[in-house]
Each structure stands twice: as structure tokens, then as C-alpha cells.
Amino acid sequence: MNFFGLFKRSDPLPATAPVARERLQVLLAHERGSPRNSSKMVALKEDIIDAIARHMLVKPEAVKVKIDRRAEVSILRIAVDIPA
Amino acid sequence: MAKVLVVTSGKGGVGKTTSTAALGAALALNGQKVVVVDFDVGLRNLDLVMGAERRVVYDLINVAQGNAKLNQALIRDKRLENLALLPASQTRDKDALSEKGLARIIKELRTLFDWVICDSPAGIERGAMMAMRHADAAIIITNPEVSSVRDSDRIIGLLDAKTERAARGERVEKHLLITRYDQARAMRGEMLKKDDVLDILSVPLLGIIPESEQVLRASNLGQPVTLANPLSAPARAYNDAARRLMGDNLAINVPLERFNLLGRIFGGRAA
Predict the structure, then answer these.
(1) Residue of A nearest to B154 (CA)
(2) Distances (CA, A) of B159 to A72, B15, B155, B219
(3) Considering only CB atoms, which chain B residues are within 8 Å of A31?
(4) Which own/partner pairs from A47-55 qualify as long-range (CB within 8 Å, at least 24 positions apart)?
(5) What is the band of B192 on the pLDDT scale with cuts at 50, 70, 90?
(6) Above 50 in pLDDT, residue B61?
(7) β-pairing, B3-8 with B115-119?
(8) From the CB of residue B105, how many other CB atoms can be counted at a distance below 10 Å?
(9) Model pTM?
(10) Which of B155, B190, B195 to mutate to test the interface with A (most CBs of A within 10 A)?
(11) End-to-end CA gap in chain B
(12) Could you give the percent of chain B with pLDDT greater than 90?
């Protein structure tokens, strides 16, 4: 055994900050679903309703816009109930 | 034109009150007229950190309810004549602060000061919402630690939803202040780095306050750290942050304690 080794940590602690970063990114992507970008979502929804309304008659409440945020990709889901 | 700031974080114990006192004093040192307002009804502490705990007569709720005039409740700082404190009530219920009364107080404070700094209580309950309600800008206090970062993210969302500015379709200017930062630990990968926190929260950085024994020393004495020891690393960081608020374009770095070798050897205190 090396004499100087006595004064060193035998097993340097692994870096934990990257784990913290990764966990936060995944968690917050999920939690941000609505509130943080709600004004953006409202604007997007209004634009979508306008675009559809140019071609057919739909009620605003018949349009549902939702963003699923995941770690890798986010999915924008648009559901429109069109009257028969 | 007065500016209303809210110092907020979601999580408790990250340094809201310390930062309110330090930034308030730093702005006042730079010639600005400043009032710091304690919104933590029932758990007031800004008076204690400012060293004015024995001078509180009337408080925010007395003024909001019309039982005292604003200038009866305002406590002028003994060190800086252009710095004042509006204390929170220690005995009243937090619901005693009315929306209307608060709006009237903020309006009046805007006419008297350049900066109105609202020290928010922790949490996302009514007190925290009242503190942010009239804010033009927010300083989000974050420790490089997972629970603090998460709570800051939540508060950022609320600033865009629950403020008067948001109701008018305007934005609340946001600034991130990272406190209790330990550069050496961040470099060793033991603590989130400044850039990690910035990437996650995507709010512009106002400053980085290093972890320092000077902060506790100042609060023990009832002095904002920017007055207690202006040359210390946290005081310089707060002073730079205050100047950035005033529009100065200063490069952001992590101030380090000036290493005083002789002082270390002979047992003196480092500056």
C-alpha cells in the first residue's frame, strides 16, 4: 500500500450533479404540461380554431389541444369534434 | 418611475429574506430610494434581518385596514436614510390583508420610492400570491439543489398566470438569483452547476451568491450582508446584482473570498 494513499479518499465519490440534472429535466418536462405555457397554449388553440373555422363550422369547445411533454419528444394532440 | 420587485422562490430557507435585505441595502447604497416590504404575515423576519425588530409599531395589515397611515408604519433605516422597511404583522391572520388595501399601499409606495421590494413568504398560498400580485419584475431565488429548482419552476409558472401584469396580458420581467453556490463542489460534480440551473429554468441570470459564513454573521448582527461586510464575496455579488437591476451591464462571475494567507496562518479573519 502506498504511504500517500492513506491520505487520499480510497474511492472518490461519483459525481451526482448530472443525475440531479437529468431527474429535474424529466420531471419538469412532465410538470410543465399546462400552467407554465398556458398563454401559449391558449393562443395556439385560438389559431387552430380560426383555421378550422375558415373551412367549416365548429364550436370552440369542440377543439381540444394538448401537449404531452416527454423527456425525448413532445406530442401535440389536436382533437376536433366535427358535427355529423 | 418606481419598480415593484417580488423576491420569491416557492421553497423556504433558500435566502429570500437575506436577499431582500442585501439587495435593498445595495440599491440604497447606490443612491436609490428603496422600501423592503415583508409579506410573511405571522412569520415576519425581515425586521430581524434588518436589525429593526424593536422599532416595529404598525404593520402592513394596520395600513391595509386603514388603522394606521403608511408613514406611521414605515421604519426608516438607521444606517441609510433612503432605505425603509414596511413590516408584516406577527399576530394577525394572513387573510387579514385585503386585495384592495394592498393595491392602495403599493400605489402609494410607488409614489414615494424608486424600488418597492416585496419579500414573499415560502409556498404558493395566498401570502405568496399577494406578494407577487403587483410585481413588475420578479427575482427568483434558487439554490443549486433539486427541490429548490423544481419549486422555482412552479413559481415561474405562477408569475405568468397570477399577477396583475399577467391579467393585463403583459409579462413579468424575471431574474434568477442563485444563492448558496459552492463553486468547488459544482466543479467536482457534487452540486448542480450554474449552467444546469439556467438550462432547466431558462430565466436570465441576475447573479450568483456564493455560500459564505458572512451571510449568517450579518444576520446575527441584524445587518444586511452588503452593509455588514461590503468587501465579502456575497456582498460583492449582491452589489453587482443590484447594479444589474439598475441597468448596468456587468459580467457575471462567482466572487470568491479573497484568500488571506497570513490571516489563515495567524488565525485572523479573512476579509
Answers:
(1) A36
(2) 27, 19, 6, 29
(3) 150, 153-154
(4) A48/A78, A52/A80
(5) very high
(6) yes
(7) parallel
(8) 20
(9) 0.81
(10) B190
(11) 37
(12) 89
Q: Is the pLDDT at A10 greater than 70, yes or no?
A: no
Residue showing cell 491520505: A7
In the beta sheet, which residues pair with residue B177?
A: B141, B207
CA distance B117 to B119: 6
CB contact under 8 A, B191 and A21: no
pLDDT digits (tens, 9 = 90+) for B146-185: 999 999 999 999 999 999 999 998 999 999 999 999 999 9
Which residues in chain A touch residue B194, judged by CB atoms under 8 angstroms apart? none
The string of DSSP letters for chain A reads --TGGGGS-SSPPPP-HHHHHHHHHHHHHHHTTTGGGHHHHHHHHHHHHHHHHTTS---GGGEEEEEEE-SS-EEEEEEE----
Using CB atoms within 10 Å of the CB of residue B270, give its burial: 0 to 12 exposed, 13 to 18 middle, 19+ buried. middle
Chain A residues contacting B via beta carbons under 8 Å: 13-18, 20-21, 23-25, 27-28, 31-32, 35-36, 38-39
pLDDT of residue B229: 96
The alpha-carbon gap from A26 to the nearest alpha carbon of chain B, in Å, equals 10
Nearest CA among B265, B261, B207 for reference residue B235: B207
Residue B44 to residues B10, B28, B183, Cα–Cα distance (Å): 16, 22, 32
Contact B2, B34 (CB under 8 A): no
Residue B269 has pLDDT above 50, yes or no: no
> What is the mean predicted confidence (pLDDT) over A35-40?
55
Q: Nearest by CB to A25, which of B156, B190, B200?
A: B200
ipTM above 0.85, yes or no: no
- B199-248: pLDDT as tens digits: 999 999 999 999 999 999 999 999 999 999 999 999 999 999 999 999 99
Q: What is the pLDDT of residue B163?
A: 95
CB contact under 8 A, B157 and A23: no
